[in-house]
Amino acid sequence: MKKLLISLAVILLSVGVTNAQVKEIEKSLKELEKAKALVAKKGDKADSWLKLGDAYRNCYEAPINGLTIGSTQVGTKVFLKDQYPLAQEQKEIAGQVYLIEKYSNKDLYFDQNGILKAVKVTKPVLENEDALVKAIESYNKAKEMRISDKDLKASLQYVCNDYWEIAMTGYNLGDYAAATEGFSNNYYTNKLAGNLDTTSIYYAAMMATLGKQYEKAIEYSNECLSIGFEDGNLYAMLAENYKETGQKEKAKEYLQQGFQKFPASQEILVSLINTYLDDKESPEKVLEFLHAAQKNEPGNASLYYSEGNLYKELKQYDKAIEFYQKAQDVDPNYFYAPYSIGDMYYTMALDIQEKAASELDDAKYNQMNEQLSECLKNAIAPFTKAFEIANERELKEVCAEYLKNIFFRFKDESPENEALYNKYNQFLQEGAE
């Protein structure tokens, strides 16, 4: 009898939830019909079109009830009040395990920390129309009829928020096409309201690139440039998308433009190197760019650092170290110069270790082992220098991790090495507490 009462309670609860959702949907549909009738009667009035846009927007929002990505699972349950999921499941999507709560018209995706990461409407109020597109069409009509900017912006802001949530849902679930559309729609809706949101169009370009929608990525990247937003990554991304569409000369053109504006950009430098090497051309062209920039800014340590990175990409390690050292000479407090010297020696040590692992000749193995030790010892001074000049604890921790590993190998050679191992190990432990 007790089980029967519990089952009845669950059934009644589910009916109550369904009725509550149905009432919300019915209300939005009635508002839409009223707004359509108002436009039919007073279609020459801007307010009529504004109300129609709001009605369409409310139809879109009815199932999600203003849910916000980033809220907690507990907070979401409080917000939804008497709504309860009909089912739950765990699923791994894009490398993330989600708890999916399934409602009658939406699915909510929570990460392992109980944070809402995605909201998908599974049963929209208007199944044969895109409610947000219809809302934008109505707002455009209201704008043509000179609706007040204040009223229009207030309504458009809600749509911008909706598109942002759509974009974040797509991104978190690895649906780059949906993320691209969400971010681009957010940008153009903001533009309609008289705002320029550079973040959303930049993200649209990034998502289109990740989703291999190269033409769209080019379009959105160029839109960024047209409104005055640019950085090294944007130029590198634009060039890569031109390469993917077979426009290599266009790619080189943008890389050269980007390099002139952002000569220290690692993204541009790597893309330049890869572009010229892919075409079987000499990296001398890249060096021309670097040397011209160095001539204009001889005191810019990052330019010598970039040349070091070029040689690192070409696996010319000695040349890389030479230019990292030059960057340090130009600016003794330039963290990345000594850090990169240490990293270069550490990389050389790992290369030797890998080769030694397959060496069967004992004499050659011992010789390689000595070379490995020498490389690791050469890395100590630059890593120590980088540790000392780093302004951020995170950077210090990276250096300390390297130094701890190196001194662990040599800690039995002397009390000083053991003390230094303990020093960096303790530093890292303190950061973990």
Order of helices and strands: HHHEEEEHHHHHHHHHHHHHHH
Spatial strand arrangement across the major sheet: 1-2-3-4
* C-alpha Rg (nearest Å): 30 Å
Number of beta-strand segments: 4
Secondary-structure-based class equals: mainly alpha
The coarse overall form would be: elongated
Largest sheet: 4 strands, antiparallel
Unreliable runs: 1-17
Helix share, percent: over 70%
The N- and C-terminal alpha carbons lie at a distance of: 54 Å
How would you sum up this structure, described in words?
- The protein is mainly α.
- Among the domains are: 65-123; 338-433, no CATH class.
- The protein has 18 helices and four strands.
- It has helices at residues 2-42, 46-61, 73-80, 131-144, 149-172, 176-192, 198-210, 214-226, 232-244, 248-261, 266-278, 284-296, 301-313, 317-330, 336-356, 362-389, 393-410, 415-432, and strands at 87-93, 96-102, 106-110, 116-121.
- The protein has a four-stranded antiparallel β-sheet with strand order 1-2-3-4.
- Strand 2 (96-102) and strand 3 form a beta hairpin.
- Helix 1 packs antiparallel against helix 2 (46-61), helix 6 packs antiparallel against helix 7 (198-210) and helix 7 packs antiparallel against helix 8.
- The radius of gyration is 30 Å and the shape is elongated.
- The chain starts with a helix and ends with a helix.
- Mean pLDDT is 89; it is low at 1-17.
